[in-house]
Input
Amino acid sequence: MKNLNPMKKFAIILFSVLTITSCSNDDDDSTIEFEPTNSIVELAQATPELSSLVTALVKYPDLVDLLSGNGTYTVFAPNNTAFADLLGAIGQTSIDDIPEDVLKSVLQHHVFASAALEASDVTSGTITMAGGETVDVVADSNGVFIDSAQVIAVDGLATNGVVHVINSVLVPPSMLPIVGTIVAPAYFNKNFTTLIEAVLAADPSILELLLSNGPGDSGLTLFAPTNDAFTAAGITDLADVADIVDTVLAYHVVDGTIMQSMLPDSGIAAAEVSTLGGNIYITNAGGAVSINGTTMVTATDITGSNGVVHVIDRTLIPPTNTINDIVASLAGGNPAEFTMLAAALAQAGLGDTFGTAGPFTVFAPTDAAFMDAGFANVDAINATDASVLVAILTHHVVEPSVYIFSTDLTDDLQAPMLNGQNVTIDLDTLTIQDAAGSTPAGLVTSLLNVHATNGVVHVIDKVLLPSN
Output
């Protein structure tokens, strides 16, 4: 290295290289140079200012073995302040937050494995680090810089190489575009590895989008699902959604920067928000914020250079089926369900209604619910006057053409239905009282918020009866 006069020698090598001058009987001077006895790892472990580096390094026994064994390595070692600065830049609080593969790549980017370069050996140029990516070295009158990091202490001589201390962590060029963006909070946190895996498996345009300022050049809003959020949505293997991964990811991105305080308020119905993959429906009525009835927003306003991140606990899946499709699918399932609802819709002449644009909010009775209401089977449905079925079925559809998810329901809500009569919601018991005052229908919690392209379905265990 050149021009290192302002720098003090590495403290940990105080006794690594000593020169002792002794006088023999014939007054001839001789110099004895003591060889270093510690490996690179041992030097780092003996230096308090490198404790963060050691904490990271010991997570990888193979790297410890490499830097403890034979070889000629040059290690540019970030001090503790450098690691603290890195954590701030990537939005993390601990080295333990960083995914292991990411952290290992960062550590390898600090090792030059081709030679042990002492201070006097380093010149300006480009060198390739152990991870396969390069750094630019500048050695001039201002000091020595490795990319943007300055060498602040030199020549920690070890049995297998040399250590120089630097004042910032070297980030591999492949990662550098991510630092500071809305991708960084997920990329550098092990709780979001599935999301990052999905982004990397998607078309490259998805990552380009997330690193951009958005189509409208006003930033992006990312609703970021955790690893557990993918599991909650039934996604345990990304291969199962490989054909729709681009659409799923785009469904989590809004063109524009929307802070928590800017999220639209909701009333009886959820507020519609357009994403780059379709519309989502936000419940925001002064309490917890939810999306599409089943996804909760668990952290908000994590800012980046190109927008903001809100964390969610369930991955959002854009709907692909109409309400008619959902009823037909369940009617033909095993075990079959909604066979009587499908028959009732057909007998009433409403078979095509729920295939139209809507949107509709539908409380859908099960087959058992129709039986409890006196319809023994499908034949009994088909023998019923169409006008009677119309009166019953329209008492199951909310009159406003809106999406009403379970999170939008309020206690003692009087909801107007298509037949002109109200039902009353009791949130404490999760029941719905119909206009006839009959035994309240219970909401089937496992089949709430079935999201369709033209509305939402809530399954109930009783038929809602009108007052006449």
Q: What stands out?
A: The CA atoms of residues 393 and 413 lie 20 Å apart. DSSP finds 15 helices and 23 strands in the chain.
